[in-house]
Amino acid sequence: xxxxxxxxxxxxxxxxxxxxxxxxxxxxxxxxxxxxxxxxxxxxxxxxxxxxxxxxxxxxxxxxxxxxxxxxxxxxxxxxxxxxxxxxxxxxxxxxxxxxxxxxxxxxxxxxxxxxxxxxxxxxxxxxxxxxxxxxxxxxxxxxxxxxxxxxxxxxxxxxxxxxxxxxxxxxxxxxxxxxxxxxxxxxxxxxxxxxxxxxxxxxxxxxxxxxxxxxxxxxxxxxxxxxxxxxxxxxxxxxxxxxxxxxxxxxx
Length: 253
Hints:
alpha/beta
């Protein structure tokens, strides 16, 4: 279990970002935040069901209840943004990765209509879109159905980031005019190769483009967290909260 838990130094960094443990209400004292958070990290890293949580973290219902509260009140997202607040914004890399949706998280066509789940050649998938900074650290996320084209959600994702003064690196899938115009209109430059059939190709800084591998490296890191490598959560909110949780652990390294 210890290999999934926060070190003392990591805990000291994150402790002031979490809600106070003492609520002032009567009744049994709340389980301390460190134990609760370590229990959540055990789940997201191991890929186990909540019911399989080791007893050392307390009743799984208590840990799940704290996770649900931090998911719904935005605590996990706020902690992630606090840790990523000093991002190196000189270069921003954008891409997406497909996450296989486990049958327990999928209810078929009718039940997935309002979720970020779509059928691809490999089965049901969710796409995790991400922006990483010049050091390869995550900055923002967005979920979509696995059969959506990357370019469909590019502007929506970039709207969540202050890109002025940055160079936005992306592969050919992001070369649509609307995306390039959005980047330019917001004071950023784009490093996106044109498709081979473009009649008027634009110049590309190929040396800088090599830095785009950082977003691929991030996807490799986050998929070491088994609850991210495979989606077991029925709701988008729960899966995205686990993405924030895994990213917090990565930022604390």
